[in-house]
Design goal:
single chain, alpha/beta, TIM Barrel, 12 helices, 13 strands
Length: 364
């Protein structure tokens, strides 16, 4: 079906195509027609926050900002999904055009600016979802909230969505909200994340469960900045790190259309930057803080590369635009073949073997 739809979708502006895709998935994902989307990737169990996922492939935030497509995403075979970014109040985002395709590089540039319907609308949809697939919610601040009051927005969003989420991701790294990335500076991150951990602990007895808190960071932090941030993540007992968001760099091999547009770049050119950050985090963080790898994944080999570099799970978004919904099944099948080649009984054991081999090769 996607082979037929893609030429049509690529003839209209990318945001128009995205909105149409969301509507198709939302309506087709309803119970009576969900079988039209059904994919059946092989089981490849892996852990996340004390749960066992059916596979390690998740949907990255940004695709389904308002939680409209969860039944469809589950039918497509995802092991988990992250929706948002959601802000306490609805906002329209930046003015269009704000999304640009670069097919030559299998990439996108976006400056959407957290366009979303707000936490109330998201909660209404999450409340109706039967929790059959783990769902994370990515939260951010409203554009008109000053950075010095960002904590108010993050507290409001966290407390609103936590009762309905399997985990919550703190987005400190979008390049499209002025001043947001300054929240990755160690002192500001310590203050903000410490406050959210207090809310997490306060809510735990009320909800009867611990709602894990993940942090999404930028690929544009240099090694020194990442080294400075990691002790903060450890000190505040962050539950996971998502690496990475989009990049403001333009790592293209040559000139491409739209390369001078402002916004975050995603897709294949981001792969190397994201993997470098994953490897640094894996080396510097304790094993108690899992890494979710995202950026430039569009096949099983790129997914395996992020996992071997140190990720426990991976997320996709731009790859779906260029490869279509069968990408999930293709990645899981390919990962299963990688696991089989190691001779290990499961994915975590296979990654231990692959990482040991990689370390041995580097030491030669």
């Amino acid at each position: 079906m996607y082979r037929l739809l893609r030429p049509l979708l690529f003839r209209v502006p990318p945001e128009t195509a995205h909105d149409a895709t969301i509507r198709i998935l939302e309506h087709t994902g309803r119970f009576a027609t969900r079988h039209l989307l059904a994919q059946h990737p092989p089981a490849l169990p892996c852990p996340l926050f004390g749960r066992t996922l059916r596979n390690p492939v998740g949907l990255a935030a940004g695709f389904d900002k308002d939680g409209r497509c969860l039944p469809a995403l589950e039918a497509l075979g995802f092991g988990f999904a992250e929706i948002g970014t959601v802000t306490p109040r609805a906002q329209p985002g930046n003015p269009p055009p704000r999304l640009f395709r670069i097919p030559e590089a299998r990439a996108l540039i976006n400056r959407m600016g957290f366009n979303n319907e707000g936490t109330d609308a998201l909660i209404a949809r999450l409340s109706a979802y039967p929790r059959t697939m783990p769902v994370g919610v990515n939260i951010g601040k409203n554009r008109d909230t000053p950075v010095e009051r960002a904590a108010d927005d993050y507290r409001s969003a966290f407390c609103a969505v936590a009762p309905h989420a399997d985990y919550v991701t703190v987005n400190l790294s979008s390049p499209n909200t002025p001043g947001l990335r300054s929240l990755q500076e160690p002192d500001m991150a310590r203050s903000l994340l410490g406050m959210l951990k207090e809310e997490q602990r306060r809510l735990a007895p009320v909800l009867g469960r611990h709602v894990p808190l993940a942090v999404k960071i930028a690929p544009d932090l240099d090694d020194r900045a990442i080294a400075a941030l990691m002790p903060v993540l450890v000190a505040v007992e962050c539950d996971a790190v998502i690496a990475t968001n989009t990049t403001i760099q333009r790592p293209f091999a040559g000139p491409v259309p739209f390369q001078d547009e402002q916004g975050g770049l995603s897709g294949t050119p981001l792969r190397g930057l994201a993997r470098h950050v994953i490897a640094l985090l894996y080396k510097g963080l304790p094993a108690t803080i899992p890494i979710i790898g995202v950026g430039g994944i569009d096949d099983a080999d790129s997914a395996w590369g992020h996992l071997v570099a140190g990720a426990s799970l991976i997320q996709v978004y731009t790859g779906l635009i260029y490869k279509g919904p069968r990408l999930v099944t293709a990645i899981v099948r390919g990962l299963a073949r990688h696991v089989a080649r190691t001779g290990a009984p499961d994915l975590p054991a296979a990654l231990e073997i692959a990482r040991t081999r990689l370390l041995s090769e580097k030491s030669r």
